Structures are given as structure tokens and as C-alpha cells.
Prior knowledge:
Three copies of one chain form a homotrimer. Chain A is α/β, with parallel strands linked by helices and 329 residues long. Chain A contains 14 helices and nine strands. Chain A has helices at residues 2-8, 26-44, 67-79, 100-109, 124-131, 149-163, 181-192, 222-226, 239-242, 250-257, 261-264, 287-290, 297-315, 321-324, and strands spanning 57-62, 83-88, 114-119, 137-143, 170-174, 197-201, 217-219, 231-234, 272-274. In chain A, the strands form two sheets. The first copy, chain A, has a five-stranded parallel sheet. The first copy, chain A, has a four-stranded parallel sheet with strand order 2-1-3-4, with helices on both faces. In chain A, helix 3 links the parallel strand 1 (57-62) and strand 2 (83-88). The longest helix of chain A has 19 residues, at 26-44. Chain A is globular and about 55 Å long. Chain A starts with a helix and ends in a 5-residue tail after the last helix. The interface between A and B is medium-sized, with 29 and 24 residues.
Amino acid sequence: MKKRNRLQLDEQGRLKHFLTIEGLNRQLLIDILDTAESLTSISEQSIKKVPLLRGKTIVNLFFEASTRTRTTFELAAKRLSADVLNINIQASATAKGETLLDTLRNLEAMHCDMFVVRHADSGAAHFIAQHAAPHISVINAGDGQHAHPTQAMLDMFTIRREKGEFHRLTVAIVGDIRHSRVARSQIHALSMLGVEDIRIIAPKTLIPTEPDAFGVHVFHDLREGLRDVDVVIMLRLQKERMRGASLPSEHEYFQRYGLTEAKLELAKPDVTVMHPGPINRGVEIDSEVADGPRSVILQQVSHGIAVRMAIMAMAMQQRPPETAEGERR
Amino acid sequence: MKKRNRLQLDEQGRLKHFLTIEGLNRQLLIDILDTAESLTSISEQSIKKVPLLRGKTIVNLFFEASTRTRTTFELAAKRLSADVLNINIQASATAKGETLLDTLRNLEAMHCDMFVVRHADSGAAHFIAQHAAPHISVINAGDGQHAHPTQAMLDMFTIRREKGEFHRLTVAIVGDIRHSRVARSQIHALSMLGVEDIRIIAPKTLIPTEPDAFGVHVFHDLREGLRDVDVVIMLRLQKERMRGASLPSEHEYFQRYGLTEAKLELAKPDVTVMHPGPINRGVEIDSEVADGPRSVILQQVSHGIAVRMAIMAMAMQQRPPETAEGERR
Amino acid sequence: MKKRNRLQLDEQGRLKHFLTIEGLNRQLLIDILDTAESLTSISEQSIKKVPLLRGKTIVNLFFEASTRTRTTFELAAKRLSADVLNINIQASATAKGETLLDTLRNLEAMHCDMFVVRHADSGAAHFIAQHAAPHISVINAGDGQHAHPTQAMLDMFTIRREKGEFHRLTVAIVGDIRHSRVARSQIHALSMLGVEDIRIIAPKTLIPTEPDAFGVHVFHDLREGLRDVDVVIMLRLQKERMRGASLPSEHEYFQRYGLTEAKLELAKPDVTVMHPGPINRGVEIDSEVADGPRSVILQQVSHGIAVRMAIMAMAMQQRPPETAEGERR
């Protein structure tokens, strides 16, 4: 934990790399949310640009294809006025036998400033941050089943916008918790921000092996777990896993764990429904719920731009002036 | 017609989406040509940039690959100072099972401003415009066999540049009219701008089923149809269709419908030769004609940038200052 | 030679296209190095941008995939504030049967300003420059086994930075000289800049058929060739060739021609080790040498940005103000 902390923060305790929620502290998460708040208006105004990262070079280093995540980071970077390079590493020099570290050394030598890393292996962004030159910031855009911390932060931003605070909330995460980097990062962030009742709801085969380590309450029955929750976060069902033995049929999954309006009645009347997307309609969530008044799924996408702008700007030690002037919410 | 009109124009009758020539009006087409005229000089000056769309995000949403069309829209957008996102939708989230509408909702939530849509299905751009959020403009960059209106407008721009006006012209379109979205949009635009003698020249199998609906004169003999024309527009022969029964051999096609200098003698002496490109040399057009003094094929490409800049700026309600000041031709 | 000269230089002897070192002159190479020197600081400062090519459109026209080379040109162009279009020509209109020249004509008509060309055929960039419109500059980013002149110039820049001058140096190039466009361009540049002792070291099968034409000293024994050299440039071993009869096994190649610390003892004590990358560790170069204190392999990558910025700016007749003011080194 300590070591990770030292890797992510500089000597003054400011954000340097953003790899995982673990090892960060409550105040830093609040700072990210506040900075994102001050940047939200950028994407809503007519000229969607601030010069915070003008002349900086940000590399989208994607070892795993993802149009959606790549797009949000590219947009966030462009709205900060940075130059963006998209590198699909499968098609690049590593195919010619160059090692990953040699690829990094080369991008550093080109005076790139930031690597946004997506990789199928847990720990990849961490490994890259450990080996990067001192002037480089690394942002984890999803590594294996380990972490997806920018997704977790945009979820926290959405919850704060909806509920105003964290302490008195009950938040349930539903779906394949065991294999989900999103869930792992969400649980750490919710816990750090003071949510007292965090629930995970899933069939036994999709619960992490040591759920107690996360300090969460485990439910196998969706109806039971939804009782009186303030926020329910549905996870995307990776259909690939359906083919393994670990899951019932898609239809049966929907019967037991799919979120419908009827089941949602058990939650608080002002319950907020979230999903990291892309959604599988009729598998983990009914269209009526996804498109209904309690869903903030599209707001999550909007907030994703502001939160990623905030994290990128902070990692480069460039804060928007309003934040510096203490205009925080 | 009325409905389409309402979709493409806002309440003040200004351009909102650009999906098809049908349902627009003569004055709006003239406005586009005038605006393009005032933007032509941008691409010719040393610094090829105007800040009309600075801070806007334009998404090239291509469901069908097309380097050439994508490139012209990307250049036009960049010269208007917009940020451009290229999304190849085959490789994106729809492959993960996300529906088209969910993809749209997500791009809207990211505060994108404009979708430039290319799709193999007729009506796709129209469908997207119908379902897009109010702040989004949709530009049709070619949908199935239905329409390719920016191509038609650059052709009109080229004709006006060459001939000065439309009323007294005879314009012939030669080739696979039946399956051509380009021809369909050209016929509507020529007619709306007042061209009285519009001819289509093709073998019977390539004539639309109801040519009368278009108010055109039908010819099956190229020599006959070319007599005294002011403008001849050759269409690209889709070689894929050759393999079907509907066409003779490539050689025979050239004999009967290929444009040569000899056949061109039948047209007016100052005839203008056009082609949307890319050309099949020796199939629908002889190299001598394509590269000859009456060909304006490359000028069409140049004009394509200015016309697309004009349409994008107008759809975003951003007109170049010169136009606003009434400096129209 | 004369003809090539006329193609690469304009009537005032200024750079127009950059295709090959042959036919250029010593002063021009020095000018490139001096301009690159004045641009080096750009990539090191906080805002890595100069407006030298603002509003210009640069097309990366890659007929052969290369993430690394494409990336360096894209970064160089963006740091000069140009707009960049990446065109993968395999996937473009030529696949629809459009000829190369028609593709060029179209890009010219779009008012593009510069083509950066990579092609598997020797002479491709030359052919394109011969047929390009007068306002276009062509930069050769590697053509077949012919030339890779920007790589050679960044190598010259690195040597001058390390050694201060060229005249008294002994420079050895090691590896597959016969098939290497990099080696060919390096030999011409070294010779033009006054290096008197140029050595090539390779097995007989990898020596050019007429080495005397290059005015170099040929060695087949690495130890012998390395004796008292100031600079050693290792070439990448194209593993594809290993499968042919022309090369021994990878292991045997390393035994005979791989650069190790032990062999490097034979060179001058302050010898500089270079490699165009990407390196094959343990094939042509030992990791201890590649990562050691005498290696400048990563500096070469950094210098590659500045040198490419210089060449692009000069070909567009846009020099940085410092250079114009005579602040040359």
C-alpha cells in the first residue's frame, strides 16, 4: 500500500500517476471530484477548450482495443488542448520483437508527457509507471481484472452530484464482481469516501474469493440486496463468461439478477441507477430501467469527460484557475 | 417531403441537418453555394484555418469504409478549427452488442456537436438525425443508394463556377443511375436550381424504375444524349455489378457508354466534363478526356472541401463574416 | 545526380523535396543540422509548439506500415502546429482501382502541402516528387532498399552533438549493409560531411556488390573493423532474411557480428554506439552495450523529432526565427 502510494503521489503528496484507488487518500479523491466539478462547464460551453495542457503530448497506449474508453480520453485530452497520439500496440514495433520497455523508452525519448494505458494484464499500468522516466505520468485506463480507477471516479462524481454526499448512503453493486476491475475500483473508492453500507450482489461463482477483505456485505438474492439502497450499480455481463460453466443461461441470469422496475421498487424511492456501459439490454438491465427516470447512465458518460480532464490535468500539475482560487463546492 | 423539411431545417428555416436535397429549397442551396464561395479562399491561402468551429467536436461516424470521403470531411473540419474524432463503427462497441442508438446516446453525452454519417443502408443518416439530441447536427456522407447530398452540392458549385448560372443549361448524367446515390442527389439539386434539360443516359437495366418521377429525359444511346449538352457528369461504374447479369462486359460498356474525345465532339464546344471519382480509366471515361482541358474532375475535389466547410458551418449556425456582410456573388 | 539535385532543390538552391542524401551538398546538410539545433529546445520546453507550419496540411502517406516512423513524423508535424492526415494507402481508394497518380492528384486538389512517403519500392518517393504539383513538398520516410534520409540526418545530428565535428572521425557501420536503406543514406551523409574513414563491417553476403563506389573500407571481421573507431552504428538484423540462405543462425550471427562490451574495448575509449532501432537485444547488440554509457540510441530518437521538424520546416521555406538571426552553432 505504502509503496503504491509513493508511486502514485509525488513528495508533496500530489497526484503523479493514477493507477488504482488503493493507496490514495480521501482528500485526494475529493480534490479530483472538485477539480472535475470546475471543469464540467467546459464541455457544456460553446467553445469546449481550455489551454491547460497546450503543447503537451498524450499517448493513448492501448494494448487492448476499446473505442469507447479511447474516445473519452481522446476527447478529454483535446479539450485540454493537448496533442494526442493513438498507438495500437498490437500493430506496432513490439510485433517486430521490440520489448515493451524499449517501446516506452522510445516514446519517452520523443518527449511524450503522459501514457494512458489499457492492457489485458493486471498490473500493466503499474509496471509501466514503475519503469517510466520521471517526467512521464501514467493513467490506468483498465488493466486486466485489477482496476479501472477513472471509471470509479466518474461513478463517485455521479453519486455526489445525485446525492450530495457519501456517508449515509447504501450502495449496491450487482453482477460479476469477481472478474470486474470496475467493481474493485468502485468498492475502494466508495469505502475511502465514507460509504458505510456497500453491498455486492451476485451468484456465488461471481463473488470474489475473499469478500471480507473488501468490507462489503454479500448478497446472493437481488431482491434482498436491493432493499432500501440509495444507489444501485449494475455491471456489464461479459457474455464470453456465459459459455464457461460459471454462469446460468442469459435468460436465467436476467430472471435472477437482471434489474427490472418491479425489483427496483424494493430500493429507496429516489434510488439512482448506474451502469458503466455498454449495457446489455434485457440481460443485466431491463430497457425500461435503463431509459427510465432513475437511470443516470448517460450522465455518467458526460461526467467521464470532466473527471478524466481533471485527473489528467492534476497528474500534470496543471489545475484550472477556478479550483486554485478555492471555488470548490 | 414536409416532414423531411422539418427535420433538416430549424424553425427559422435555417439548416440543422443535411441529409438529402429533397425538402430543401432553392434559396438554401444558393446560400450554401455562396457560403462555399466565401470559404474557397481559405484553402488557397498560406494559413488554411478559420476559427468558425473552434472548440466544437465533429465525429466521423463511418459504418462503411471510405478514405476519400472521410479525408475531405476531416480536412474541412480541421480547417474550421474543429476537433475531429474518427470512429470506425465496425470496430467499436456495437461489436460488443451495443445498439446503434446507445452508441449515439453515448457520443451525445460526451458533448459531441456533429455526426458525419456514412452507412451502407439507405435512410441511416435520416434515422440518426431523427433520434439525435437537439444540440446535434447530422451530415449525410452517403447512405446506401439513397443520397450523397454534399457530393451533389460540390457538383452544383463546380457547375456554377464553370457556367455562371443554371437556367439555360443542358446537363447529362451517364452511367448506373439506378443504383447511384450521387445521381439521385444531383438530379434533385439540378432541378431545384432551375436546370431545365436534365438527361440521364444508361442501358435500360441501369435506369431507375420510374424515371418520370424525376422529370428527366432518358437516353439509351450515349451519342444521342450528348448532343448539345453543356455539362456531362460521368458516374463511376461499380465493377461489383459487372458480375451480376445487369451489365455487359467492361470492354463492351466502354464501347457503348465510355466517354471519349470523339463522342464529346457531339456536345457543345465548351462542354464541362465531371466525375465524382475515383475514376475507372478506360471503363466509363477515357484518360484523354479525364485529363483533358474540358475536365474539371480535380476542381470538383477542391470545391468539395469548401462546400463541406460551408455546410458544416451553416448547420452549426456559424457563418463566415464575409457572407454575413452580404458579400455574396 | 544533377537531375536529382534539380528535383530536390528549388532555383535558389533551397530544399524543396527531401528524397535522398545524394545530390544535396555539404552546406545544405549543415543548414539542416543547424536548424534542428535551434528546434531541439522546442521538444524540451513545457509548451512543445511553434507556429511555423500552422494552417498547413501534412499527409502521412504510408504504403508500408510503420508505427514508429509515422509517430515521429506526426509528432514533428504537430509540434510545428500543422494539421496531420494519416493515410494508410493499402486501405484506401487504390484498392478500388484508383491509380497512385490519381490518388496524388486528389490529395493535391484538397490543398495538402506535404506528403511524407513510406513505400516498399525503391524510388517511390522520387516518383511521387516528380509527379507532384509545384506547391507540394515530398519527404522520403523510407523507400525499399534505396534511402532513408531523415534517419541518416538524425544520425549525423547525433554524431555532431557527441563529437563536435566530422573530419577526423572513423565511423563503422555494422550489419546487413547490402539491403539497408539506412546504411546507404548514412554513407552518403558521412562522406558529404567529410568523414574520411568510413568502414562497413559485414559477412560477404551482406556487403553491397560494388562497395568501392561508396568509398568505404570493407571488413568482414568485427574485431578488426572496430579497432580505434570513434562511432559504431549497428544495423537492425531483419530476421526475415535469416530464413534465406544468406545468413548464419541468429546465435552464430551474434557470435560473429553482435556488439558486446568485450569487442567494444577495441574501439576508442570514448566510442559512441548508435542504432536506428528497434533493437534486437542479443542478436546484433548485447543489452549491456545498448543500455550502457556509450550508447546514444535513445538520444537518436529524441533528435529524430527535431531533425524532422527542421527538414519539414525548411522544405516549406519556413525557418525558425533564431536560425534566421544567425544563432547557429
